[in-house]
Q: What sequence folds into this?
């Protein structure tokens, strides 16, 4: 199976921030979600893959092309959308569409028209009159209509109203239909990632905390409520990431759940009342607070 | 040719023009020569350029499931539950081809890996069968809905016993409740709520 991208030993230093020793790859046809707090390094990672920033060390391969040596070939099949990209205020959206079409032969005018309708955008309107949400949707439309093999989307749903967010997720779901197309997207909204991603990658302080397939990742975590006076010592129970106690109620966030673990807890006198799956947001916050591996 | 086909229960007739524009229809594919192919549970039919109508035994099913991100049930479990419900209700008959994993993921807006997992669980439960290179189909078991109901009953029964233990009810207490239930018949519903 070919890879959409592969990073090996990638480091990038800025004055106040460094992305360190990143080893990460994604098979073709997958959707990967990047989760991290502001300043974690998500955008730097996306910029390196998009050929907009140069790694200090390590190797970067995008769609089988070495970056930056073969970046022209890579970029022809690459879509990159970030809020930082300025569109020309005095020009219409139609002008932008024609501009992108003149550069990329893969531009699909029928799909573009479909996206315009679904995103509720007017091609003849000048960008100066666009709202924030409309600008974001316009930028996504300009990328989607090229049908690039790899889409790099930096916070594609941030700042969108619920209806616009839904439209964007629907367009993203269209991409899933084609097994040769891949998406890497970052989001503060972990719900979007939980819904759409095959693989989840946690980025924190410039390093990767975890990168795993979503189903087994979600499956490993549980929030366990037990009654009794037993409170685990976290050093002796590496499976447990967080413990809170209030009277006879103890809440545990477990990072490596198994039936055997519950049995061992019961032999310590814990009365298990529930063991429920956790959502991605809860898992992420617990991981960051626990200050370690997920 | 048509005689043989007419024995089949024809649910759907696709025209080439009509199908190409379907949003959820990946049923038709065009090969390098421009021939159109139809994927169905019984293999590939070619239109060979001239024939513009294709018959299918099974209805083309809508691959969109109604999934909720605010439901605490995990997404893969929601898919398992909904497909099981469709099979039990007879919406999807035995032998019915299921949507491809990508098709269902795209239409229901969930990740491919989640649908993969749901299909794997449905396969293990015997609700669907997956044939390599052909896709997945509703299992051909004559008693499928019975066995699913049986599984559901067992689950509720075990939960009831667990609950009774916590309440300290003896087997005789439970037996008494069952006798009372029978004596009152359907005329008077029992106390408590039913889901």
A:
């Amino acid at each position: 199976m070919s890879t959409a991208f592969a990073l090996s030993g990638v480091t990038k230093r800025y004055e106040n921030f460094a992305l360190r020793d990143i080893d990460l790859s994604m098979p073709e046809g997958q959707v990967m979600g990047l989760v991290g707090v502001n300043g974690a390094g998500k955008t730097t990672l996306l910029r390196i893959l998009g050929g907009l920033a140069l790694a200090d060390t390590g190797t970067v391969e995008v769609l089988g092309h070495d970056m930056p040596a073969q970046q022209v070939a890579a970029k022809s099949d690459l879509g990159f959308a970030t809020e930082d990209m300025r569109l020309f205020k005095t020009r219409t959206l139609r002008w932008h569409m024609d501009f992108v079409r003149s550069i990329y032969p893969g531009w699909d005018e029928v799909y573009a028209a479909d996206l315009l309708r679904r995103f509720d955008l007017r091609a003849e309107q000048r960008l100066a009159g666009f709202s924030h949400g409309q600008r974001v949707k316009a930028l996504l439309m300009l990328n989607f209509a090229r049908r690039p093999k790899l889409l790099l989307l930096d916070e594609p749903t941030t700042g969108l109203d619920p209806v616009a967010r839904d439209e964007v997720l629907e367009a993203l779901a269209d991409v899933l239909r084609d097994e040769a197309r891949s998406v890497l997207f970052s989001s503060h909204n972990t719900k979007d990632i939980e819904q759409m991603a095959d693989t989840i990658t946690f980025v924190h302080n410039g390093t990767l905390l975890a990168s795993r397939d979503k189903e087994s990742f979600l499956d490993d975590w549980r929030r366990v409520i037990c009654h009794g006076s037993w409170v685990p010592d976290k050093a002796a129970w590496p499976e447990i990431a967080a413990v809170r106690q209030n009277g006879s109620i103890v809440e545990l966030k477990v990072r490596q759940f198994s039936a055997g673990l519950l049995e061992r807890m019961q032999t310590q006198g814990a009365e298990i009342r529930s063991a429920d799956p956790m959502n991605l947001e809860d898992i992420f916050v617990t991981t960051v607070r626990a200050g370690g591996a997920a | 040719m048509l005689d043989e086909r007419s024995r089949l229960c024809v649910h759907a007739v696709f025209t080439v023009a009509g199908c190409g524009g379907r949003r959820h229809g990946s049923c038709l594919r065009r090969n390098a020569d421009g021939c159109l192919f139809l994927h169905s549970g019984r293999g590939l039919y070619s239109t060979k350029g001239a024939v513009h109508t294709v018959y299918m035994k099974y209805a083309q099913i809508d691959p969109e499931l109604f999934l909720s991100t605010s439901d605490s049930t995990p997404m893969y479990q929601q898919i398992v539950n909904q497909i099981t419900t469709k099979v039990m209700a007879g919406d999807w008959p035995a032998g019915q081809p299921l949507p491809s994993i990508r098709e269902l993921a795209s239409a229901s807006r969930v990740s491919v890996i989640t649908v993969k997992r749901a299909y794997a669980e449905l396969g293990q439960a015997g609700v669907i069968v997956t044939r390599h290179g052909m896709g997945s189909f509703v299992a051909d078991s004559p008693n499928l809905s019975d066995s699913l109901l049986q599984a559901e009953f067992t689950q509720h029964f075990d939960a009831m016993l667990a609950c009774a233990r916590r309440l300290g009810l003896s087997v005789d207490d439970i037996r008494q409740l069952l006798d009372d239930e029978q004596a009152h018949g359907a005329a008077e519903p029992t106390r408590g709520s039913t889901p």
Q: What stands out?
A: Chain A has ten helices and 14 strands. Chain A has two domains: 3-211, 222-277. The mean pLDDT of chain A is 91. Chain A touches chain B at residues 29-31, 169-170, 173-174, 176-177, 179, 191, 194-199, 213-215, 218, 276-277 (CB under 8 Å).
